[in-house]
C-alpha cells in the first residue's frame, strides 16, 4: 500500500496568527520600499503631495483600527449587520494600528514633528501602538500562564468573594487549633488571607514564592501532635489556594488595566487627529 | 428537607470552593471610556478655544521658518481672521510691496527667470499658490526656498540631475562662444604669466576673470582694465590710408568731418592734430585709442555707402549681433547716441534748431519710458534688417574697394576684433554663459581648481610652449565650459546637492524685481 505523501506547507495551512503576521511584515516592507523609492525622486515632507498621501493613508488606517472598539461595544448591531467575527477584527485592528504608526513616520519623512499638536499626535501614536502591542502580548501570554502554572481557574469578579471564603475557613480551622498553631497563624498567616494581593512576582513565578512560607509550616508540623498536624495541613492547603487566587488577581487585573493605558490614549489621539485634519484642510 | 448540595451549582478546586449560583456580569468598562472621553473632550475643547480665541499657537502644525518668525504670534497675520488658506495676495503684501500688479511671482512669470523676455509672461492654467511650493510651519530651521524637485517635475520631465537631466545647450548643440574677439587663451596666459612672474597658470586667469563681489560670477571684460597694459601702445598706427577727395574713395580728415557737421562729432574739436600725419594724398593715424572716434566715424561713413539704410544700427558703435534678450540694451545704446547728439546741438544759437530739439527731447523721453516698460514689445528688425541688403547702385568693384578700405582702417583693431561689412563685431563683455541656471564659482573653487573643469581648451599645455596653439584648439569661439558629466562627478546623491533649486531659480531674481518696482514708481503700466 503506498504511503500517503505529506502535504507541503502553503499559506492556507499556516496558523491564522502567522498569516496576519506575514501580512504585516509584507505591508511594512512594501511601505518602506515605496518610501525609499519616493526618497530617490524627491524629499518627503508632511506638506508635499507624497507626505499628504501618507498622512491620508495613516488617517484611514487609524479610523479602521478605531472601528474595532466601536464593533466591540455594538455587538448586537454588528452581528445583525454581519460585520465579521472578533477573530478577524482583532488581527485587522492590530495590523492597521501597526501600519498606522509606520505611515505616520513616513508622513513626517521620519523627522521629528514641530508643533504642539503634531508632537502630541506623534507621541500618542507611539504610545497607543506600543500599549496595543503590549496588550496583544499579554492576551497571548497570561491565559497560557494561568492555565499551565496554576491548578484552579477563578473568575476575576468572584475573587473578593473567594478570598473571603478562604479567610473565614482559615480562621475557623485556626480557631480549633491549639495555642501554638493559632499563634503561628496570627503571626505568619493571617495577613496573607486578608485580601487579594497584587504582586509583581506572579509575572515571573506563578507560585509567588509560596513554597518558602510552606517550609515554616512543614517545620512546625514535625513538632505537633497528629490531630494538630491535620489542621495545619488544612491551613497549608488554604494558603496555597490563596496564593493561586492572588496570582489570578494579579495577572487577570493586568489584562484589564492594560486597556487603561491603551483606550483613553487612543481616544485623545483621535481628538488630536480631528484637530490636525481640520487645520490641514481648513488652512 | 433539602438534600446536601441542593440549590448549589457545585464546588471547584481542591478546597471545594463554591461555584457562584448566578451569572457573573463582568465589571463595567464605562469608567475607562468615560476617562478617555473626558481627556479627548478636554483636549478638543482646549484646542478649539486656542484656535478661535487665543491665536492658535497650540493648534499650529509647527513654528514658522525664521524668515516669517515675526508673524507667528497671530495666525490672522497670514490666515485672515476668519481662517482659510494663505492667499498669494498676502505674500505679495511684503514681497512685492505694491501688490502683485506685475505678477512677478506668478507661474507664468517664471519664464522671466534669466530670459528677461516679458512676452512670455502670459496667464497659465498651471498657476499654484505660494504655499504649495514654500511649505510653512516646519520649524524655525526649515528652508522654505528649498523647493523639492517634485514641484518642478510636474512640468519638467527631467527626473533627477544624474539621470534624465538634459545636457547643457552649449554642449548638446555645440554652440560657439559669441565673444566677437580673436583671443587665444593659452597665449595670453603665457604672456601674463611672463609679465607678472607667475608660477601658477591659474593665477593668470584671474587677471581678466575678476570675480564679482558675491564671488558667484565674473565682472564684464573691460579694455582699459584688462587689455590696455599690452595692447594699443604708443607705436600702434593705421597703415597709410587714402584721403577722400571728390569722387575718390578714402577716409575723411578731422577738418572734413567738422566741415560736414556730422552729428556727434564734437570730439573732433578736441582731437590732437599730431596724431594725424598727412603725406600727400594719404593719412596715417597714430597713436590710436580704444574706440577711437575718428576710426568709428570713418567706418560709419563707409558703412553708409555700403548700406543705404542702416536703420538704428547706424547709432551703434558695434554690430547689432546681440542675443535676443539683449535687444533692450541695443535700443538703450541707440537712444544714448541720439541723446549725446542732442546735447551737442544745444550749443547752437539757431532758434529753429532749439525748438526742434525740444520736440526731439520729448520724443526721446517717451522712448526712454517705453524702454523702461518691461512688457513693451521691441522690434528687433529695426537693427537686424538694416545690414542685410547692400546698396544696389554699387558695383562689385566699388563694394570691394570699400571693404578693402574698411579693412585697412581697422587693421590695428583687427588684431583682436572681428570686422565685417565695415562694422566691428560686438564684443560679449559679460561672462555669463548659463541662461537658465545659476553657477556659484565661490562655492566650487574650494573643491576644484579652474582648469579641473574648464579643460576644453588645453590652456596649461599651451602656456607651457612657446608656440601659439591652432585656432581650432584655442580660440575665443570655443566655449571653454564643462558638460553635465563634469558636474555629475560631484553632484550625486551621495556627495553634493543635486536638487533642481541647487542651480535653477523659479522666480526672477531680486535685482530684476527691483527694476520692476522702479518701473512702477515711474507710474508706467
Oligomer: heterodimer
Task: Give the overall shape of chain B, derived from the CA principal axes.
Answer: elongated
Please give the largest β-sheet of chain B.
Answer: 3 strands, antiparallel
Helix-strand sequence of chain B: EEHHHHHHHHHEHEEHHHHHEEHHHHHH
Calculate the mean pLDDT score of chain A and round it.
87
Number of strands of chain B: 7
Rg of chain A (C-alpha, Å): 27 Å
Strand content bin of chain B:
under 5%
Rounded Rg of chain B: 37 Å
Biggest interface found: A-B, 51 and 52 residues
Taken as a percent bin, the fraction of beta residues of chain A is under 5%
Helix-and-strand structural type of chain A: mainly alpha
Largest sheet, strands/sense/barrel of chain A: none
Number of strands of chain A: 0
First CA to last CA of chain A: what distance?
A: 77 Å
Structure commentary:
- The complex is a heterodimer of chains A (283) and B (525).
- Chain A has 283 residues and is mainly alpha-helical.
- Helices cover 78% and strands 0% of the residues of chain A.
- Chain A has ten helices and no strands.
- In chain A, helix 1 (16-41) packs parallel to helix 4, helix 4 (86-107) runs antiparallel to helix 5 (116-149) and helix 7 (179-193) packs parallel to helix 10.
- The radius of gyration of chain A is 27 Å and the shape is elongated.
- Chain B has helices spanning 30-53, 76-79, 88-95, 130-133, 149-153, 169-172, 185-196, 201-205, 223-226, 254-260, 293-306, 327-345, 351-372, 381-384, 396-409, 441-445, 450-453, 459-464, 484-488, 500-503, 510-521, and strands spanning 11-12, 17-18, 241-242, 276-279, 282-285, 419-420, 423-424.
- The relative contact order of chain B is 0.13.
- In chain B, helix 11 (293-306) packs antiparallel against helix 15 and helix 12 packs antiparallel against helix 13.
- Chain B has 525 residues and is mainly α.
- Mean pLDDT of chain B is 84; it is low at 1-7.
- The chains are: A mainly alpha (283), B mainly alpha (525).
- At the A-B interface, helix 5, helix 6 and helix 10 of A face strand 2, helix 1 and helix 5 of B.
